[in-house]
Design goal:
Immunoglobulin-like, mainly beta, single chain
């Protein structure tokens, strides 16, 4: 009888081709044994179970139509191939089998839900990374990747099917989605998975200048955008009209005219401001 198709380690192979090229490969054997086993358990008297059209149990799902023969994929392998079964961390594209319970072709009992992220704590962290973030959700067991936007977490630990602890990676400032990938897919984006990556101002030098403005201030921190336009520097509520960042950690800004007072020097990148700290203060005299 026909052997089911198999997708192993990210490469789709029809079992017959795999046998011809490599002998009886594990994917073909597992698929074939599963196929025959499903027939044998409905054939206790060894005279087979046949549908009205003469098909044996396992052959009812050999339709040569991908949607009905293989069902809904669990995800996409690294090479773009689809898979619907995970065995020992290997990815397979297996034919479905007939379910006497459900009276239909199935890939597995019950429904397989993809992971979901419902909460991240804390919700902010610096562009330098290193923030320990607790991710809460469902279906998180077996996670193979955690990303902050398009950047992989520095490391992560699966605590349970509802909790993961991940360390945020160095990344450009902005609001990003925290996503979790498991063999069942990648979590759907939502407002609940947002994490804000912020620039930081660690020091300003000099830390004071005349209220008439015109003082060139060296600013040290992180998450700055190179050049004169990507990073907005504010002295209190007033924007500096002359900014130049020579790296993501260093820049200069000319202090604006301002009344005599002490205020925070903040950086704003991709609409995200740096948090105010005691290290960013500048005194107008």
């Amino acid at each position: 009888m026909p052997a089911p198709g198999a997708c192993k380690n990210g490469a789709v192979r029809k079992a017959g081709v795999e046998i011809a090229r490599r002998g009886a490969g594990r994917g073909a054997l597992q698929g074939g044994l599963s196929h025959e086993h499903n027939e044998s358990i409905t054939d206790p008297e060894l005279n087979a179970w046949y549908a009205q059209n003469g098909q044996e149990n396992g052959d009812k799902c050999r339709t040569f139509n991908e949607a009905t023969e293989f069902g809904t994929p669990l995800g996409t392998a690294p090479d773009g191939s689809r898979y619907n079964q995970v065995i020992d961390s290997d990815l397979y594209w297996y034919q479905q089998e007939w379910s006497n319970e459900g009276l239909q072709c199935k890939q597995r009992l019950g429904s397989v839900q993809g992971p979901t992220v419902t909460k991240v704590v804390p919700k902010t962290g610096p562009a330098t990374g290193g923030t320990s973030v607790t991710i809460t959700g469902a279906g998180l067991a077996g996670a193979t990747a955690v990303k902050f936007g398009g950047t992989s977490a520095t490391k992560f630990t699966v605590n349970s099917s509802t909790s993961i602890t991940a360390t945020s990676p160095p990344a450009a400032p902005g609001v990003v989605d925290v996503t979790v990938t498991t063999p069942a897919g990648t979590s759907t984006l939502s407002l609940k998975d947002h994490f804000k990556i912020t620039p930081l101002v660690d020091s300003v030098s000099p830390s004071s200048g005349p209220s008439a403005g015109g003082t060139t201030v060296t600013i040290t921190g992180s998450g700055f955008t190179l050049g004169a336009s990507g990073t907005i520097i504010k002295f209190g509520a007033t924007v500096s009209k002359s900014v130049n960042c020579t790296s993501s950690e260093h820049g200069t800004a000319v202090s604006p005219q301002h009344e005599a007072a002490t205020g925070d020097v903040t950086a704003r990148v991709n609409k995200v401001p740096s948090p105010k700290t005691s290290a960013d203060q500048f005194k107008f005299v």
